[in-house]
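Budget justification note: compute hours in this period were largely spent on complex prediction jobs such as the one shown. Inputs:
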Amino acid sequence: MDQTQQPKHLWWQKGIIYQIYPRSFMDSNADGVGDIQGIITKLDYLQWLGIQAIWVSPVYPSPMADFGYDIADYTGIHPLFGSLKDFDALLKQVHGRGMKLILDLVPNHSSDQHPWFLESRSSRDNPKRDWYLWHDPGKDGGPPNNWLSVFGGSGWEWDETTSQYYYHAFLKEQPDLNWRNPEVQQAMLDAMRFWMDRGVDGFRVDVMWHMVKDNQWRNNPPNPDYKPHMATYEKLTPAYSTDQPEVHEIVGMMRRLMDEYEDRLIIGEIYLPIHKLVTYYGINNQGAHLPFNFQLIALPWNARQISSTIDQYEGALPANGWPNWVLGNHDQSRIASRVGKSQARVAAMLLLTLRGTPTIYYGDEIGMHDVAIPEEEVQDPQGLNMPGLNLSRDPFRTPMQWDDSLNAAFTTGKPWLRLAEDYKRNNVQAQKDDAESMLTLYRRLIELRNTEPALHIGNYIPVYTENDLLAFIREADKRFLVVLNLSHAPGYFTPTDVEIHGRILLSTCADRQLNEVQGKITLNGDEGLLIELF
Ligand code: NOJ
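Corresponding output:
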């Protein structure tokens, strides 16, 4: 269907989402950890950048076993980040700028310090016992089945007091909630309502595909593709512990709640292959508005594979299902480290010209890279639990680099994670007025995307290419051709199925003349071109 013919496009379709990892964005009180007041001081920057919505990783009360993804109170704010008053101030400031605020919601599991779990584990006949996943030992006296924790080891933890195991897909400090229990459903929907009533514009729902488990607790089968360098979780295929059909009823419930409010958004964090991912849009699009599409993270940086995946994804989307693209987040190596500095510029052009809502991970707009964290400074439980596998996520969570002053102006205290050593050269201040910087490229791409309907709501038309080139057209009132060279070597673009006559609007290579092109295009290595077709 012609996407531009839709009656009305909503903010989350037209705009760009920016993810803030709050611990690392901006610290206002010198404790070395970013906070809400810090974010408020940077809203002018985000507005200048041109993004539409901010998604903030968890700021709820939490023992921080998994840096906030272990929630001890779904309706509060951790004092480390501020107070509810600060939160309301943030929301007001965000809305005052015409922007939106998306909260992270972690409904699959709570903290083991959440009062619900403290009650649940207190005795077998506690009314909240069934709120979590308790089980008798298996026949051999060990765990009930072979399910593994994403963070290493068994997914089952023995509880001495009540002599049963409980299931945790992540840390043992993150017990999984029992989403088959209607009281759990109600409690979480109430928490969502609490934030929606305050004015929050949507949720990014953590590990949405994990929420419901097989009700027969069957063993997961071995993963035939497992290799010893992989996380131990990869030994099995999580066929029974994730992506169960009943999860769609839960997503539908959340969606119905959101639909009681005007113009709200529900994003699902889902790491699944495309054909399964798209089921999370729900029947008749009554599921998540945006099931996160992580293909650009999962795929090797290869033009053929990426362009065929774009087409597969476009082809698999349900009618009126809105696409989205992600290059990075707090769980993944940064794009600049994965593909290198020059290709990170090409990646930025790809992200910001594809059809569908782009999500930018904080710092990627200044080309931040993974930072080497000495072993004795590792903080991330995923790294600490599986030493030797290099799985710590700290390198991609380092403090934002604002300027060349002490700690890049992130904090006047001792930062919770060390900063990149290049921050004196590589920071917002230095890049702002530098025509050749990554930040300038991002800003220009965002500006073009925001102002040209073809780029934010236009159709996507694949263009056949060979070798390391990737090309497509975006079309509405105007037509734009995007040609990206994913290799370091120069290349020729000689399309067979499209007539080229246009003007280069933007190149990822600073010294490119923005002139007219006709017929054949010669690209530099690592060059992406955005061309307005006549
Ligand atoms: C996904 C989150 O993005 C990640 O940071 C977290 O550790 C796990 N879910 C567990 O909540």
